[in-house]
């Protein structure tokens, strides 16, 4: 599956647009990791625990989006975007979305 953040695919031609696809996940903080991050918040430094949580959440949301595109028969997703929102204190939603398309590359 090809993913691009541009609205078109420069290395090939979009021959069919299949529609918007999305994937989302809601992740909550872990109490043990919260303690470490709270300490870093006081003394400064990167909050690696939250970075890891959000990286994992983006990967899950991307996979769910790709799975939806595959079900539609797409071989690419264009105009990929990510959105984050706080659902409640200590939990965040990551949403990945884009347009599922079928592309024709010069090699085809």
Automatic annotation (TrEMBL):
InterPro entries: UPF0145_dom_sf (IPR035439), UPF0145_YbjQ-like (IPR002765)
Any matching Pfam family: YbjQ_1
PANTHER family to which the protein is assigned, alphabetical: UPF0145 PROTEIN SCO3412 (PTHR34068:SF2), UPF0145 PROTEIN YBJQ (PTHR34068)
Family: Belongs to the UPF0145 family.
UniProt-recorded name of the protein: UPF0145 protein JOC49_001413
């Amino acid at each position: 599956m090809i993913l691009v953040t541009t609205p078109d695919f420069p290395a090939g031609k979009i021959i069919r647009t299949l529609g918007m696809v999305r994937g989302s996940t809601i992740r909550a903080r872990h109490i043990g990791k919260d303690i470490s991050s709270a300490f870093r918040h006081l003394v400064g430094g990167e909050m690696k625990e939250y970075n890891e949580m959000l990286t994992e959440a983006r990967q899950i949301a991307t996979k769910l989006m790709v799975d939806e595109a595959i079900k539609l028969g797409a071989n690419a997703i264009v105009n990929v975007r990510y959105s984050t929102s706080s659902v409640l204190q200590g939990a965040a939603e990551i949403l990945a979305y884009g347009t599922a398309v079928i592309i024709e590359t010069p090699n085809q």
